[in-house]
């Protein structure tokens, strides 16, 4: 890992410089009530206040702004129905280049509207991974656009790593960091920043029981794909990639599982006590902290609130 | 007004010093999307992040911390079923003195629990103003506690005025300030701070159509009581008092009315776009800004988000 880490140190610092004019340096909030409830000292990094409402903008912005002019002029492309789609569309808009987003036909209208609102072209496909990938290939054949994967890409990992880097610089002497894990872009970036810029910070992943592929992969020592995941944390359904898994395997202390009731209850606590809106995926780390007081008791823990995008009209506690 | 204002300048600066160790200096947030929608430049002062989740803590804290030791040791008392009850209970707890809160028997259990959680004694009464006042009188006879009115009190007005004072110091050259109006503590304090510490800042009140007594009072030149108010903005049901009305009458430019649909829609915008939780009363000013673009267009407007307390389990957009 030594060489890889040296390489990532420069990449992450580079990403921080590159996205600075475009991304928010998000606030760190704390809550006395939540500290009492959890018997720990929690510092919440509020990526729900990031552009497009999620940390995903950091990685997408880093990838888009890092392209040379020749590659950039053909535009960027991806398949995504989530926050990465909006993130890539906005970053492309800021660079004034085209973005082509392949989205499943059954994606919520509100998500399509958001991507269209950032000026991207939406290409519909059938809701299978195979059709998403084939449709994306055709788009690239037609446009020569540059594909930006949502997580399995070193530029994305480095961009997401700036979240933890900011938190480490702002809150001194953190003992732990905890982030949700889906494809692993945020968690691997968090682990890299803790390792490269922090002092003895332990990093934990938090994952829903209904999509526990990262937990299995971590314990079995190889990537176990996510098959038919089922959880309210709809940002955490994907499998780890060959770029994110090795970093997580070597730098993360443990991956903690929580069920949907625990996620819902932590989400309610964050809304009610902190007066901020987070999406279910963002509440997974607090749920893991509350469930594992033997690990976190009396420690200074940084919690990454990954995003705040959900359809409020559909939500009911 | 000249003498009164001079007097208030010292009172407000004194309140700011007095509450500093206890109250949060709340953040000011802005949103590009809301600026675009409103065609104005909005600066939101986030009192939903204040202690007890509302600006009310400022006034209550100022009153409690300003008492001399002899008066303080008997404790403080009030009748309230809202944010003032929690605010007074917490301020008393911080000073380590008793608080006696008269609450109507039908007040939500969650509100009683919050007040009890701050260590106050809750005394139940029938849900009429008459019984609330009589019960409070009996409590005072028994305890000799010092009564702190929720708004019609210069210490409360001065405490609430620190909200606008902070906003004016943080955001230069504001053209307008807008605050919700119920009993008028926040609005009169806002008007005083704009007048005493700002330069040519126009102040507007925002009020629900279903509780338009302040609008009527302002236009008729005398206090018109609030009779059977009916609005989702449940923090704005009370009538102006003889301390708040004269300040509002002389220093406020206009009081703007909005209906419940407009309040609900602004509240949804704030939750969705800013990712923060505000209660219905706190969304009334944004609704008024959106309804009156002829007034606010292209101006730099400070909006006071008064609080974020509501029962999330009861709420549905």
Outline of the structure:
Two copies of one chain form a homodimer. Chain A has 317 residues and is of the alpha/beta class. Chain A contains 14 helices and ten strands.
Question: Which descriptors would you attach to this protein?
Answer:
homodimer; 317 residues; alpha/beta; Rossmann fold; 2 domains; six-stranded mixed beta sheet; four-stranded parallel beta sheet; 14 helices; globular
Give a description of the structure.
Two copies of one chain form a homodimer. Chain A folds into two domains: 5-54 and 156-314, 3-Layer(aba) Sandwich (Rossmann fold); 57-147, Rossmann fold, CATH 3.40.50. With 317 residues, the first copy, chain A, is of the alpha/beta class. Chain A has helices spanning 2-19, 32-38, 56-66, 69-72, 83-95, 109-117, 129-143, 154-170, 185-197, 213-220, 244-251, 260-274, 284-291, 293-296, and strands spanning 28-29, 41-46, 76-79, 99-104, 121-125, 146-147, 176-180, 202-208, 254-258, 300-305. Chain A has a six-stranded mixed β-sheet, with helices on both faces. In chain A, strands 5-4-3-6 form a four-stranded parallel β-sheet, with helices on both faces. Helices cover 47% and strands 15% of the residues of chain A. The interface between A and B is medium-sized, with 17 and 17 residues.
